[in-house]
Amino acid sequence: MLRSILLLFLVASASSAPPNINLTHPHPQSVVDELHRRVNVSISRRQMLGERAAECLTGNPIDDCWKCDDWATNRQRLADCGIGFGADAAGGKGGQIYVVTDSSDHDVVNPTPGTLRYAVMQEQPLWIIFSADMTIKLKHELILTSYKTIDGRGHQVHITGGGCLTIQYISDVIIHNIHIHHCKPTGNVNIRSSPTHVGYRGRSDGDGISISGSRKIWIDHCTLSYCTDGLIDAIMGSTAITISNNYFSHHNDVMLFGHNDEYMLDAGMQITIAFNRFGEALVQRMPRCRRGYMHVVNNDYTGWGMYAIGGSANPTINSQGNRYTAPGNPDAKEVTKRVDTDANGWSGWNWRSEGDIMVNGAFFVPSGAGLSAQYALASSVQPKGAAYIDQITMNAGVLGGSRDEGVRRQGGGYTSGNGGDDSTVYTGGNGKGGGGDYFGIFGSRGAPLRSTSSMGSPILCLSLLISCVFILIGPLQHRPM
């Protein structure tokens, strides 16, 4: 009977279920403890070295991992520096380095070599960098394939325009040091998603970064603002995600995690939100969660219009070592909001606050096991307090430039969600760096090819789904009742 029920449920959901369902998840407390251990090591190391720590050591374990090295000649070192649930995101590690030399986006069906669109649709792992400062105004959403890193270090790179970044049914993506802003809905057009596939795309929401049915994603040191819908949304069973060291500003619906309250695959969603600064003119959803487990750690919330962290459908919220500074509005002091749910419905949800600093009347309403001192498994690694927030988040956002550089002049005011809210092509070279050859079209050396089409055929999706059914129900049959 159990086999029949699960089979009917999953087959009936085939049209919306991602083809790469992740059925294994780490124990969240082990991931939380490892993150705290790395923060504690970085802070202790800086304190021990004192003045000898130099500017490169901040106590931020991500930055301290790569920033003190000669990163320009060893860019792929960054892939070893992830933390949290998205720590295993490989990006383009082991692949060749692709240099974007052309900021245009004229043809979304046949992208020009040298453009960002041409790079992100390729099947092999690539570490994508930029030849100069540039603003890339997209005609339509930029559809990534698996095993890609977009690395803006060394230049000021802006991505704006139609749709912006789409991470759909893929894995292993790193987005680092990019300005993303003024993204708007576009679509109802054919877009190439791989060298062998062109597909029709409906209208996009206008998210800065849209993550759907994907895993092992890391978004680090980006500056995001002024998009039509969300700045970062993760839905449809996406998991193993870290969002770190970013600067968010001028927006209403900042981040949405979860497709809808009834979408059960989002129960496996695990996301780390760490070392970010939530800056001026933000209203809500920092983040807004459905189901899943969210570790919100060592972030600096400088205000909000309505609330900071919201949720529905029983997500777990583990807030540790953050600084929450409430706005002046006496009716908006609460950090938390249970969306469209009365107290009888959310009293058992596990929401806790540990080591957070509340400023200007801010308060966090815990619930479930969060009301108890013993929230989860006993931890041998205690989180550092929010007193280190200034130190840890001092470089949040894009490195090397003003957080609002080149953004304000393109339009003022934030938007409400849901609409209310010619260069030469580089053709190759022999320069070395980051573990791969530089190339414009393609060099000869790289990691093995991986199947990365972001628009798999219905037959393939269905076959993978049925395989997942038998993987899932096999252990259930032998589980004690």
What would your notes on this structure say?
By secondary structure, this protein is an alpha/beta fold. It has one domain: Pectate Lyase C-like (3 Solenoid). The protein is 15% helix and 28% strand. The chain has seven helices and 33 strands. It has helices at residues 2-12, 28-49, 61-66, 116-120, 343-346, 389-392, 458-477, and strands at residues 96-100, 126-130, 134-138, 142-143, 148-151, 157-162, 165-168, 171-176, 179-184, 189-194, 197-201, 209-212, 215-220, 223-225, 232-235, 239-244, 247-249, 251-253, 255-257, 270-274, 277-278, 282-284, 288-290, 293-297, 300-301, 309-312, 316-320, 323-325, 336-338, 351-354, 357-359, 432-433, 436-439. The strands form five sheets. The protein has a twelve-stranded mixed beta sheet with strand order 30-27-24-20-16-13-8-5-2-1-33-32. Helix 1 (2-12) packs antiparallel against helix 7 (458-477). It is globular, with a radius of gyration of 22 Å. Residues 1-22 and 411-481 have low confidence and may be disordered.
Q: What's the count of strands?
A: 33
* CATH homologous superfamily assignment: Single-stranded right-handed beta-helix, Pectin lyase-like
What is the straight-line distance between the termini? 14 Å
Give the low-confidence spans: 1-22, 411-481
Gross morphology is globular
In the CATH hierarchy, what is the class?
Mainly Beta
Give the fraction of residues assigned to helices: 10-25%
Main sheet specs: 12 strands, mixed
Short overview:
The protein is an alpha/beta fold. It has a single domain, classed as 3 Solenoid (Pectate Lyase C-like), CATH 2.160.20. It has helices at 2-12, 28-49, 61-66, 116-120, 343-346, 389-392, 458-477, and strands spanning 96-100, 126-130, 134-138, 142-143, 148-151, 157-162, 165-168, 171-176, 179-184, 189-194, 197-201, 209-212, 215-220, 223-225, 232-235, 239-244, 247-249, 251-253, 255-257, 270-274, 277-278, 282-284, 288-290, 293-297, 300-301, 309-312, 316-320, 323-325, 336-338, 351-354, 357-359, 432-433, 436-439.
